[in-house]
Amino acid sequence: MSDDNSAISATEAKRLLDEWKRAPAIVLAVSGGPDSVALMWLAVRWRRTLKQGPRLIAVTVDHGLRPEAAREAREVKRLAGTLDLPHRTLRWTGTKPNSGLPEAAREARYRLLAEAARASGATHILTAHTRDDQAETLLMRLLRGSGIAGLAAMARETEREGVRLARPLLAVPKARLVATLEKARIGYAVDPTNRDTAFTRPRLRVLMPALAAEGGDARNLARLAARLARANAAVEVLADGAERYLALRDGGAAPGFDAGAFVALPEEIRLRLLKRAIDRVGHEGPAELGKVEALLTALDQAVMQGTGKLKQTLAGAVIGLANGRIRVEPAPPRRSRAR
């Protein structure tokens, strides 16, 4: 096992990145901080070892939230130029929300990165999330009462807006990326908002040393997230099977599923199937887990009454129970209030 403070070798970089060597083009998300600059440096060195491989494009998103951001983007462009790497800077324009700013900025960043990927013919976006980020994400979701899927934290690869989003450094400590840059004598920016305790993630960073002293260091927290991801994947397979079972049992009946067969399934499976159905037809975004749990409780109680009925709206979907069947259908659009 590599030392947590050692620089990443060319051999290790190849092991981390070879998974994407057949992609036609890759967008590297580079903010200018140590993690993303290290990703750019490692990716360029890796690409040079390949006879054939993906085109690399560095993309920086300027959220317009800090006066230093434009200068940092220019510095990334300068560094990319020394590496013969194409670079683009994208800007988040428009009104910024008064609350939930980190979440809104993250969504804007991914949207802009996906647009850049599609425009350049890239199939993948690589981000520089580290093991430390994974541990922090787990803690944030734990405090918010997330379910198993949420506690699995960030996946190594997923799909977002038609592009594959990959995190090749998810098992790598941040300290190793800093050591890599120091060895190569490459500078990087330090974002002051990463230490701004007005936001949740920086407040958790302050607590990390105390948690580490009790065994809750980034390594163990990331290991827990990986184990939960493994469990979540297994439950998803079971939910897939249950969904097929209900469909086969209905034999082409009207949309929905038999209430008796549904309530006989394990609670976690019922919860996932209900959320899937709501998210599939709803038009107000993913349903909140807590609200789906409350709906499932009401639905179970209504089914157990034998002749019970139920009709509720959630996340742009109408969930109904009648005549022994559960139906989930799109809700009519909300009427705008007259002024």
Structural description of this entry:
The chain is an alpha/beta fold. It folds into two domains: 10-224, Rossmann fold, CATH 3.40.50; 253-339, Uridine Diphospho-n-acetylenolpyruvylglucosamine Reductase, domain 3, CATH 3.30.465. The chain is 50% helix and 14% strand. It contains twelve helices and ten strands. The protein has helices at 10-17, 34-48, 68-82, 101-120, 131-143, 148-151, 174-184, 200-213, 218-250, 259-263, 267-281, 289-304, and strands at 25-29, 55-62, 87-91, 124-126, 157-160, 163-166, 257-258, 310-314, 317-322, 325-330. Helix 5 crosses helix 8 (200-213). The N and C termini lie far apart (65 Å).
What is CATH's topology name of the largest domain?
Answer: Rossmann fold
Low-confidence stretches: none
CATH class of the largest domain: Alpha Beta
Q: Indicate the overall shape.
A: elongated
Give me the count of strands.
10
Q: Helix-strand pattern, N to C?
A: HEHEHEHEHHEEHHHEHHHEEE
Q: Give the DSSP E fraction (strand runs of 2 or more residues).
A: 5-15%
Based on secondary structure, the structural category is alpha/beta
Number of helices: 12
CATH superfamily of the largest domain: HUPs
Question: How many individual domains?
Answer: 2
Distance between the termini: 65 Å
Give the neighbour order of strands across the main sheet.
Answer: 3-2-1-4-6-5
How are the secondary structure elements laid out?
Layout lengths: L9 H8 L7 E5 L4 H15 L6 E8 L5 H15 L4 E5 L9 H20 L3 E3 L4 H13 L4 H4 L5 E4 L2 E4 L7 H11 L15 H14 L4 H33 L6 E2 H5 L3 H15 L7 H16 L5 E5 L2 E6 L2 E6 L9
Parallel strand pairs: 1-2, 1-4, 2-3, 4-6
Antiparallel strand pairs: 5-6, 7-10, 8-9, 9-10
